[in-house]
Write a structure and sequence with these properties.
The protein is of the alpha/beta class and 192 residues long. Helices cover 40% and strands 18% of the residues. Strands 2-1-3-4-5-6 form a six-stranded parallel sheet, with helices on both faces.
Length: 192
């Protein structure tokens, strides 16, 4: 119960105002939040530009940056969270960290290794439905693999919302869906 230490990873767009706003919302609820900048100051107006940068830097390098950012805090037992690409980063780190307290995925997942272990890790995923980047087939397979790894998974879907519907600066934004997401996510964090 109570106050969590959260590592919140930004989306493919970089560390935009919406990520800081989300961190402030979590802090207002009493949590301690770190918001690493994996793109080292770069932000992008379009998803395509963000993806191009991501591929230029390389996923391995970005994961390494995420691990380095998290390392000083991991002894405290972190909740890993992230938007879109940041969700895939959060998932990788949470599954590699025996002390992880939870995993909060916003608009994004990652593939699992066959031998992944997430022993009783509480996982909550929030997705638009349908989501152009995460098909129903993919999510079903992801859910089954997470369960097999031992995670305690719940999925919340938001019919008709845009992919990154929590970012007020994007066309995807859906105020009602975003409000519901934060209500559910804050309750999840309180339950850990």
């Amino acid at each position: 119960m109570g106050h969590m230490n959260i590592m919140l990873f930004h989306s493919t767009y970089g560390l935009r105002p919406a990520v800081h706003a989300a961190a402030d919302r979590l802090r207002a609820a009493g949590h301690r939040v770190q918001v690493p900048d994996l793109f080292e100051g770069r932000t992008f107006e379009t998803f395509e530009e963000g993806v191009a940068h991501l591929e230029e830097v390389g996923r391995d390098e970005l994961l390494k940056r995420a691990v380095l950012a998290s390392a000083p805090f991991s002894d405290q037992g972190l909740v890993y969270a992230g938007f879109d690409f940041g969700g895939s980063v959060a998932q990788h780190l949470a599954l590699a960290d025996d002390k992880a307290r939870g995993l909060l995925l916003l608009h994004g997942t990652a593939d699992l290794e066959d031998d992944a272990s997430a022993d009783e890790l509480p996982v909550q995923l929030h997705m638009a439905d349908p989501d152009p980047f995460e098909t129903h087939d993919w999510l079903t397979a992801w859910y089954l693999r997470m369960r097999r790894a031992g995670a305690d998974v719940e999925i919340h879907s938001y019919p008709g919302a845009g992919h990154l519907f929590t970012d007020p600066d994007l066309d995807d934004y859906d105020a009602d869906a975003a409000g519901e997401l934060w209500r559910v996510a804050l309750a999840f964090l309180d339950s850990l």
